[in-house]
Specification:
Radius of gyration: 56 Å
Low-confidence stretches: 105-164, 173-196, 202-206
Strand order of the largest sheet: 1-2-5-3-4
Shape: elongated
Structural class: alpha+beta
Largest sheet: 5 strands, antiparallel
Mean pLDDT: 68
């Protein structure tokens, strides 16, 4: 037997009563969400009041200048009347007044010119033209010191002239270096017994006492003094040595700190002059005991330019023995006018 299934639907139309509640709930939740979005997440804490210490900077006023007190008026000296002239008496002596036109009598109030003080003298020694050179103690004696007599040669005499004569000394030295002075310093040397040769002697030293000696040519077959070659070579070597002394003043000062500031040294050097005037060999024969002096002399001979040997000279070279002598105070080397002129040209 078959059973029929039947579904009965009871449809009485839309039910009312809960729709409004759903709508209200939705809008309320949306309002809450909007409120939560716009509200700050962290609530600001109330700011704590901090203790604030206030300082009041007082402005320091500049001190007001004190009013200047009126300067006291200078005390005026009361004029003291001159005492009346003494009355004439029996013991009164009158001095006769010379006539106004008398030139022989001068009033006592006229000042007399004072004589200038004597120029300071320095100890210098002139070296003769001797061709033989002995030990240091056997130097020929020069003219008397402090006599004031001018000496021959380029430089100043043993009387040590003052500053007014320096220009004349420089002029003489300049003419000698240029070969205008044919005197040749000390002239021809005696050469000694059997030594032969001719030479010139360096005259008085420079203003401070540096630079003199002698120059001896070894050959006896030619007169270098008469030909004028000795004078030219002599002054060329002297100028070159003065230049080295001025440029090496600092080395002399370093040496003086250990050995003393006063120089009294000499050395002997032998060199050979070629036909063209070039110095070929330089040998230090006798040392002076002052290293800067030996070095200055050796350097001067290595850099000096000598004129060629005379055409009538029979040989191709000539040996020369030169003595360099330095005396004086090392303090004066930098201010010596002749050393400065040889190095700087003025």
């Amino acid at each position: 037997m078959a059973l029929d299934s039947t579904i009965i639907l009871d449809d009485k139309g839309p039910r009312q009563g809960y729709g409004w509640a759903f709508s209200v709930s939705t809008w309320v939740h949306l309002a809450l969400l909007v409120a939560l979005v716009w509200l700050p997440i962290v609530r600001p804490h109330p700011e704590e009041k901090k203790d604030v210490v206030e300082f009041e900077v007082a402005k320091k006023e500049a001190p007001k200048p004190k009013p200047r007190e009126p300067e006291p008026q200078a005390l005026r000296r009361k004029a003291v009347p001159n005492p009346p002239p003494p009355s004439g008496g029996a013991n009164e002596r009158r001095v006769p007044v010379p006539p106004a036109g008398d030139p022989q009598v001068q009033p006592q109030s006229q000042a007399r010119p004072m004589a200038p003080p004597p120029a300071p003298t320095t100890s210098t020694r002139a070296f003769t033209g001797s061709s033989s050179q002995g030990p240091k103690g056997d130097r020929p004696a020069g003219p008397a010191v402090g006599t004031g007599e001018p000496a021959e040669g380029p430089g100043q005499g043993p009387g040590a002239p003052g500053r007014s004569d320096l220009s004349r000394a420089l002029s003489d030295f300049r003419r000698s270096v240029l070969g205008l002075d044919g005197s040749g310093g000390g002239g021809k040397g005696n050469g000694g017994e059997g030594s032969g040769g001719s030479g010139v002697g360096m005259g008085p030293p420079s203003a401070s006492g540096f630079g003199f000696g002698n120059l001896l040519f070894e050959g006896n077959d030619f007169d270098f003094v008469k030909s004028g070659y000795a004078s030219q070579a002599y002054y060329a070597i002297l100028k070159a040595w003065y230049r080295r002394l001025y440029l090496m003043a600092d080395q002399f000062e370093k040496w003086a700190f250990k050995r003393g500031w006063m120089l009294d040294h000499q050395n002997q050097i032998r060199f050979v002059i070629g036909r063209n005037g070039q110095i070929e060999r330089v040998d230090l024969i006798n040392e002076s005991g002052c290293e800067p002096l030996d070095k200055s002399a050796m350097d001067a001979l290595k850099e000096v330019v000598l004129p060629p040997l005379p055409p009538e000279f029979p040989r191709g070279e000539e040996g020369v023995l030169v003595t360099f002598i330095a005396t004086g105070d090392i303090h004066l080397m930098r201010t010596d006018p002749q050393l400065h002129w040889a190095a700087e040209g003025y």
